[in-house]
Every structure is written in C-alpha cells, then in structure tokens.
Amino acid sequence: MTSDYDIEILEQVVEETKEKHYHQIVLFNDDVNTFDHVIDTLIRVCEHEPLQAEQCAMLVHYKGKCGVKTGDYKDLEPRCTALLDAGLSAEIQ
To answer: What pTM value is reported for the model?
Structure first.
C-alpha cells in the first residue's frame, strides 16, 4: 500500500530529475561509415557494450537517427566532438 509520504518522495525525485536538464547525443545516418566503424566508435567514445552499440547502429541505419548517450552537457560535449572527429554525424540535443 502506498502512503502519502511515499508519493511525496516520488514527486521530489521526479522534480529533481527534471531540474538536471539532461541532454543527449543524437547520431545520424550517413552513406559513408561502415557498421563496424560506427560500432567500434560507440564502444570507444560512448562506453557502449558491443550489443548496445550494434543496436544503436541498426537504429541509425533504419530510422535515420538514434540517441546514443544521455547526460550532463559537460560530459557529452567531448564525446560528441570525438564522434565528429571519427567522421560520424552527431549533435547534442
């Protein structure tokens, strides 16, 4: 049974999460890079597990884009730059 106290705590957590203003790196499809290059770069730059990187690469290929990393802007900026330096198309949103 959920108490009023539990609901109040949950509401506080939701508000605190909203206030952090998380951003995400969005990776876009291109006709240049191979799947292997995209997967290897996501593993190296975004610290993805191999399966996660492969799934993101497939989503980018079939959907045109995919959010590949969420977090604080200060953490995402060098990662996005590294993706761009590797020849991928990405931006922080």
So the answer is: 0.78
